[in-house]
Design goal:
Number of helices: 3
Number of strands: 2
Helix content: 40-55%
Distance between the termini: 31 Å
Mean pLDDT: 85
Largest sheet: 2 strands, antiparallel
Order of helices and strands: HHEEH
Shape: flat
Radius of gyration: 14 Å
Length: about 90
Amino acid sequence: MSSCCSPKIRPVSMGSMALNFALSVFNAANHAVKAKKILAPKNIIEDRIKTCKACSFLKLNRCEKCGCYIAVKAGMDVEKCPDGKW
């Protein structure tokens, strides 16, 4: 039974994780074709990971909202937090 004050986090389906991954790869490739950077600057990556570590959706280095590994997602310049935190 969940508390009234804490939202119940539902696991991301394998299909949703696959779609999120495919979109990430597509966005990175699209950026590369446009000669834009793929990797975020080190300070941005560090800030994103710090934000993720304080988030209730983080479990075992993975975001329970999108299913992505934060170290990978935070490192990609074009990516965004699914909860709008970065």
